[in-house]
Please model this.
Amino acid sequence: MTPAKRVFDFVVAFGLCLILAVPFAILVVFLLLREGRPIFYVSERMRGPDRPFMLWKLRTMRPTDGDAGVSGGDKSDRITPLGLWLRKYRLDEIPQLWNVLKGDMSFVGPRPPLRSYVERFPALYTQVLRSRPGITGLATIHFHRREEQLLKRCKTPQETDLVYSTRCVPRKARLDLIYQHKRNLCLDVLLMLRTVQRVGGNNRRRRNS
Model:
């Protein structure tokens, strides 16, 4: 990560924290009253082959013991109605501003992988994680919808893992490496704006359908 990208991330994340402080506090209180504890979902992710960190999100699923792996159709019945709404507007990812402030993540980059996939595909993730993991990125914009379609058909954790590792990981990595070769602050701003536009466009289509 270049010094300019780090400064950009910190300044934007700090500004958003100030702007969202009161609305986020109200949202947290509402979630606490409606869903109970825990409010946050904290999970280990990797920012390098040997560099784990704890990713923060608002909880969108009913908690269960032994939860692991990516989310597929096998977990869909655990998503709460309020969690579905949070995911729809990507509000569950607001706590990742803390990860950006700490330097664990950037606004733009590959989505941070689970340790199990980094250990299974070390050569691939050694290349991909030369970029700081991000909240959004080229793969998020161009493949996320397809990834959701593929994973929601999965009925078991084993099927979800197979589909994700064989059909999602390679495609996402290719896009992440394209971003890595072309990255600059102008591209980051463009991808951030495209993400906001995409979330708004998806929601307008859902309301009109």
Remarks:
- The mean pLDDT is 92.
- The first helix runs from residue 3 to 35.
- The radius of gyration is 17 Å.
- The chain has eight helices and four strands.
